[in-house]
Design brief:
Blueprint lengths: L4 E9 L6 H13 E9 L10 H12 L5 E6 L3 H7 L4 E6 L2 H17 L4 E6 L9 H9 L10 H10 L8
Bound molecules: 4'-phosphopantetheine.
Amino acid sequence: MLPASSSIAIYPGSFDPITNGHLDLIHRGARLFSKLIVSVLRNDSKEPLFSVEERTEMLLEVVKVYPNVEVDSFHGLLVDHAKAHSATVLLRGIRAISDYEFELQMALMNRRLSPGIETIFLMSNEAYSFISSRLVKQVFSLGGDITGLVPPTVEARLRQRLPHLTKET
Ligand code: PNS
């Protein structure tokens, strides 16, 4: 199927780790744009569970089925990263109204910084609208079942990272 637009889009985020909600957005973004670059923010101040390299590896494992999806990382301004890739679209997902305020602020700031770059929002698939990386980590660390919330490779990584939490079978 041909993409709806010949634009190059960046899908930025922390992806610590990637969830099925992110993956759904990648799947839909890959159909909309000629190239979609999933870009991991390098930001040590957030004290992530996974390093940028680990997060990139996890992303690469799940996007390999999409020929027009690439994975990269960035630091500094997102719009500069977009320009470096000749991208004209920033793709973000909105799960609930609570996401809207922050997303609007970011979109308006990015537009001010670079008016030629548009932020495009996709509404989350309702099946994933309650999922966040933060909640997945919390539920997993408390011994809860996260099946179906993250790709199986990510669940395996979480188990490796927090092995003492793996239930005995
Ligand atoms: O997954 P997240 O943590 O919600 O992603 C936030 C992200 C990476 C999109 C945002 O923090 C970002 O774009 N950071 C780059 C810094 C920047 O460009 N700031 C100015 C515009 S808000």
